[in-house]
User: Fold this.
Amino acid sequence: MITIRRAIISVSNKKGVFEFAQALHKRGIEIISTGGTAKELNRSGIPVTLVSEVTGYPEILDGRVKTLHPAIHGALLARSDVLSDTETLASHNITPIELVVVNLYPFEETIAGNSVSIDTAVEQIDIGGPTMIRAAAKNFKHRAIVVNPGRYSDIITELDSNDGSITDETSMNLAREAFEYTAHYDSVIVRYFDSLAPAKADLPDKITFSLHKELALRYGENPHQKAALYGRFFEYFEHLHGKALSFNNILDITAAAQLIGEFDRPTAVIIKHNNPCGVASDDSLSDAYRKAYECDRTSAFGGIIAVNRPLDFETAQAVNEIFTEVIIAPAFDGDVVDFLQKKKDRRVIKQLTDLHNVDDLDIRSVYCGLLVQDKDTERISKDRLKVVTKRKPDANQLESLLFAWRVAKHVKSNAIIFARNGQTLGIGAGQMSRVDSSKIAVSKAKNAGFDLADTVVASDGFFPFADGVIELVRAGATAIIQPGGSVRDQEIIDAANEHNVSMVFTGVRHFRH
Assistant:
């Protein structure tokens, strides 16, 4: 048990601190404080001993140095059960400080503002605060550290229950929370300086990040798995209506938002289990949605729908005809949200930012580690395509090839996409063999009632053998887009020429695992 006789309070976030300090004072605990906190406490009628009275030195360097003194840190780091420590304190007239109440300068909030200067940001890097926090947390067997205003009422309750003392268990929990707090603070500073540095050719030797829990989830991919959402997801998506988002909803929302960002024309995408089951672009959003839905009506049931234009009433009515888990749009016309809210379980999400404008890393979990890579933001334009066959694609085919290629980028490998005039007709995804993906794409197209004559096909990776190309030609494809790069490229090109099919190479692969 740690009996509390003296406390130091120095907080940037003053939420609840006056009531807390008043409660400590009523229990006979001496309060030491600094600068603005001391002034506010005094103004509230709470007696305060200034840090400068304890150290014998004034605050200097515009407040950069206040608590960095042996009279403070000796009082925090001394071990109450070590005789030499207590003798050292006595010889220097230092009185122990058992309770430290500190939170830090608002660095993260400061840099979140627009056009913040480096000088302004740097002045919000706290020095004395983290030092006191770490000192008290290190000495948790003899000191208690409180960094979270939400803990104030718990501390008072514990003091009342234990005759002015805090239990060892609570002190250890507070120390863990304190180290977590300073680790997050430092990670934000590291990320800030990374953002100022020129782009590096290689990824850093160490990756430092700390993420707040944004949302506790009912469960993970399956009901027996615990799960939570960490990070800044809701800076990019606003949940306007519907049940709480699930683990799988969040994965699908991310997949849908990344795919929809590939297109400039009015476009609708339908996602199921992280794969698109229908994508279409058109002059009107309602026509784009209708065409996306036609690609795979069965899989669209219970899917995630995203559009890249404000959702108009006509499109909303069409979407409303089937069961949909989530609807995502950058905005909603008129009374569209009210209309969509008539189905209580459906989630309505406003996408606040195009994810292609977000500079971030792609991070995947692996056994006992993380795989980290740059985001796949590569975009191919017409002038980068290499025609490798005798037959050249016409202008309409080129547009369709680029459309299909953008979709293929977001389909699990192996990916095969049949398309025509800005509409997916058949999507084959996630197969161990590219030929199997081709067969699935053809089967889905036929089930949807599409004639695949004179269609284009996108393949996310090269064709290792000519059989894949032949499978597509038999189905009706007359133009193919693929990365190229196989040792059998010439064999593939020869097969395309033999069947009078145009083929273009991108020189870029879009595997997605």
Summary: The chain has three domains: 2-193, 214-357, 384-505.
